[in-house]
Design a protein that fits this description.
The protein contains no helices and 11 strands. It is mostly beta strands.
Length: 119
């Protein structure tokens, strides 16, 4: 059974920090890519940051220099350190794991955790 468990969301004032964490069940062994997406009301879901099994990272332009993604391949976890938060960061954040197995691609999602940044 595939399960992604997220934690760390909450309410924070502008300029504050939050750290999101996600644990992926071991039924998914070392996902090729792990990342965080977010979706604000009335907006499309967008990639915030991702990291490959080899450590390569991608960040949305809007969060570069403020957010840091990290993963622990042994523990199947991925964290998102969010600094200097601004109201525009308010959204539901979703953990994602992508894996290619047997020539097929699989995507798994967490339930989402709310991040609210007050001005």
């Amino acid at each position: 059974q595939v399960q992604l468990v997220e934690s760390g969301g909450g309410l924070v004032q502008a300029g504050g920090t939050l750290r999101l964490s996600c644990t992926v069940s071991r039924s998914i062994s070392s996902p090729n890519v792990m990342g965080w997406y977010r979706q604000a009301p009335g907006m499309q879901r967008e990639l915030v940051a991702s990291v490959t099994s080899g450590g390569s990272t991608i960040y949305a332009d809007s969060v570069k220099g403020r957010f840091t993604i990290s993963r622990d391949n042994a523990k199947n976890t991925v964290d998102l350190q969010m600094n200097s938060l601004i109201p525009e960061d308010t959204a539901v954040y979703y953990c994602n794991a992508h894996q290619r197995v047997g020539g097929r691609d699989y995507d798994y999602w967490g339930q989402g955790t709310q991040v609210t940044v007050s001005s």
